Amino acid sequence: MVDINPARPRRDSYTVETLLAVTVQVFNERGYDGTSMEDLSRAAGISKSSIYHHVRGKEELLNLAVGRALDGLFGILDEPAAAEGPAAARLEHVVRRTTEVLIAELPYVTLLLRVRGNTAAEQWALRRRREFDHHVAELLAAAVRSGELRADVDPRLATRLIFGMINSLVEWYRPEGDQQAADQAAQEIADAVVELSLSGLRRS
Amino acid sequence: MVDINPARPRRDSYTVETLLAVTVQVFNERGYDGTSMEDLSRAAGISKSSIYHHVRGKEELLNLAVGRALDGLFGILDEPAAAEGPAAARLEHVVRRTTEVLIAELPYVTLLLRVRGNTAAEQWALRRRREFDHHVAELLAAAVRSGELRADVDPRLATRLIFGMINSLVEWYRPEGDQQAADQAAQEIADAVVELSLSGLRRS
Q1: Do A195 and B152 touch (CB under 8 A)?
Q2: Which of B163, B201, B203 sits opposite A197 (nearest CB)?
């Protein structure tokens, strides 16, 4: 519907959170670099000045979107099961929860994993992502030192392969059915990631 | 150097193979869609008509490049160790060799994994890639049926996660040092992929 009174701004019922949901979709489709405020305005169906009412611009939207993914991931490390107990059990918890957070925050983690480039916001996201990976690599190395995990696979290499497995979800996982079905699928995938990385497919 | 005699074509010392090596790099940097014949001409340092002397156009270059990756991958399935013996051992061979082929043909497999879109050449590449994945999933399912692998992980899901692990290499693996160092790294990575997926990291 065309607004016939140009003096009256079109009603903008967005919150920062719902605006972010639209934004992250556009970023994932067109890439952050390839997205203009014009594209965001068109996708959201509100004017650019309405968007500027919520945020300072494209970079703040990126910060908020990857921040949401990073908060989810770093939150895992503060969970009791990630902080206490034998290293291998803590690693298992972190691997499982990382998979669950990726699925729960799929578009946001997808954006985080696709960020490249040289703006300050992108560099910050890359740095924080590497920091998270580093925490997991440390945990894996601790479990090797304690003798819980095998010493013949390099901890950094193993960490990369486990993240390769988890992060591949953004390429092929698409939630189907209702929330219950999605929760069940998420559970099955998290189990499979844990089993493959820690126990392997071979029957013992 | 500017050619001062426009009637004499500039010397073109390319073969299809060396032209392909330049092409695949440009495709990987700019995306297939985002690459023009002009871009290829600039990167190769020869005129567009010189490129047309070797190939019919951009689509044939894509066909040749992903064809090289696909030939490498499908070639694995014809190897004796992939075709004969217990299913789990055949799977192990295919997983190891897929990792090795990905490393040996890194730019070509990178292109294959990044192909999206709707041209006939891209659709064909996607179809053949799915066909290869399907062969591996079948092998994994056979190893579950024979009781060699655990039945509590869905074979299709396990296949996706194993490919997730292997394919992540295009994101983070960069060959370093001389051929011997690269071969050794490739070996270490292939071992780690096999160990993680079949035996897991936990000490048995």
Answers
A1: yes
A2: B201
Contact (CB<8Å) B189/A157: yes
Q: What is the pLDDT of residues A114-169, one digit of tens each?
A: 998 788 999 999 999 999 999 999 999 999 999 999 999 999 999 999 999 999 99
Give domain status of residue B163, yes or no: yes
**Could you tell me which of B48, B28, B21 has the C-alpha nearest to residue B110?**
B28
DSSP letter (8 states) at residue A127 = H
The CATH number for A162's domain is 1.10.357.10
Nearest CA distance, A48 vs chain B (angstrom): 28
Same-domain check for residues A48 and A76: no
Any domain includes A10:
no
What distance in Å separates residue B104's CA from the closest CA in chain A? 18
| Mean pLDDT on B40-55 | 94
Considering only alpha carbons, which residue of chain A is nearest residue B99?
A: A161
Domain co-membership, A123 together with A192: yes
Distance (Å, whole) CA B166 – CA B112: 14
Residue B119 to residue B175: CA distance in whole angstroms: 32
What domain range includes position B95?
67-199
Domain count, chain A: 2
Residues in chain A closer than 8 A to B162 (CB atoms) = 165, 196
Residue at A2 is within a domain: no
Which residues in B lie closer than 8 A to residue A189 (C-beta atoms)? 157
Q: What is the pTM of this model?
A: 0.91
CB A28 within 8 A of CB A114: yes
Percent of residues in chain A assigned helix, strand, coil, to nearest 5: 70, 0, 25
Q: Let me know whether A110 and A44 are in one domain.
A: no
- Give the nearest partner residue to A201 out of B153, B188, B193, using CB atoms: B153
Per-residue CA distances from B10 to A180, A197, B16, B39, B49 (Å): 65, 55, 17, 18, 10
Residues A41 and A104 in one domain: no
The predicted-structure confidence for A96-115, as pLDDT tens digits, reads as follows 999 999 999 999 999 999 99
Tokens of residue A174, six digits:
């698409």
Q: Do A149 and B202 touch (CB under 8 A)?
A: yes
Q: What pLDDT is stored for residue A92 in this prediction? A: 97
A45 falls within a domain: yes
